[in-house]
Amino acid sequence: MRDFSHTKRIVIKIGTATLSKDGKVDTDYVHDIVRQVSQMVKQGCQPVIVTSGAIGMGAGQLHLSGPIKDMKMRQACAAIGQPLLMAEYRKAFAEYGIICGQVLMTAEVLNHRKTYLNLRNAMEKLLNLGAVPVLNENDCVSTAEIGSAFGDNDRLSALVASKIDADLLIMLSDIDALYDKDPRKHNGAKPIKFVFEITKEILQNAGSRGSTYATGGMRTKIQAVKIASYAGCRIVLAHGRESNVIERIMAGEEIGTLFLPKRKLSNRARWILNNAPVGKIAIDAGAIEALRKRKSLLPSGITGVEGKFAVGAVVMLNDVAKAVTNLGSEELKSLAGKHSSEIRQVLGPDRKDVVAIPEDIVFLDY
Questions:
Q1: What is the DSSP track for 124-142?
Q2: Are 55 and 68 in contact (CB under 8 A)?
Q3: What is the pLDDT of residues 87-109, one digit of tens each?
Q4: Among residues 58, 15, 271, 311, which one has the least CA distance to residue 154?
Q5: What pTM was estimated for this model as a whole?
Q6: SS3 category, 35
Q7: pLDDT at 366 (0 to 100)
Q8: If we measure between CA atoms, which residue out of 237, 293, 283 comes closest to residue 260?
Q9: Distance (Å, rounded) from C-alpha 179 to C-alpha 93?
Q10: Structural domains of the chain in order of their starting residue, each with its CATH number
């Protein structure tokens, strides 16, 4: 299970608390991580780094202390801290003759199929050139208010791992493993070495509080694990300050917790599943039963439409599935409950006669 000798494409996520020291970039730590990553490149691997720390770095430059809650101040800190953070990575990689590339992302990039594929192609080119992509959320323009933030780099790293079909996701943080109980509340909590399935019990036991400048906790890490596992990706959660942690993980040492995927979904199914829905289509029980048998969604099974969306949007089907719709919200409202043959009568002969095909429907519990 921990044989990574044939693992080629690896995403390494480094948390804010792991990377930072007194609100500043811990340059010694950055150089040590880069040393280990550079060794992976020389061995023929294609590592990708997803890094936190920009807001914390900016806060350090501004001599701020404590959590930064004001959104405008967080954006300012990110703008100040991001170039400082990237400068350290560039300097460190240059010592090993390796080029790194900065990639700043927002959630909209992954939510829109065209930009999603464009980013995927760019990442493929960087990796094939032997460069190491260094990714971070573009915190200067991503805000929770407008729904464009990933929320934390745990989720971002998992989405990246899924997007590039990574073989392994290494999540380095100030948490050393998944425990059977919350170790902050239970002295007898024991670390779990292997996880084969994310159960409700695991989610209930997961904590939710992060570090000073971080937004993630164990719960966000578990959610990230689920995203990456859909892509058939193995995940290791470990403490980032363990000596030679990346080298030891790659050597198969039992550090932290290893999460094993149950199954692998197609790239398109993963894109649909991980996309933020822009609306909701209410469907009856008969329609749900038909969809589970890999049938198309027909207008006759629709009982209501919520939100305003266009053709090609990702929407919720009740609370059980996500789908790419062939019809916009206003069109669906006019056709709800009608026979599929009426679609072309109402909208024209060039329109598809189904709301969504099986390949564009993904159940949340699959």
A1: HHHHHTT-EEEEEE-TTT-
A2: yes
A3: 999 999 999 999 999 998 877 77
A4: 15
A5: 0.79
A6: helix
A7: 54
A8: 237
A9: 35
A10: 9-269 (3.40.1160.10), 277-363 (2.30.130.10)
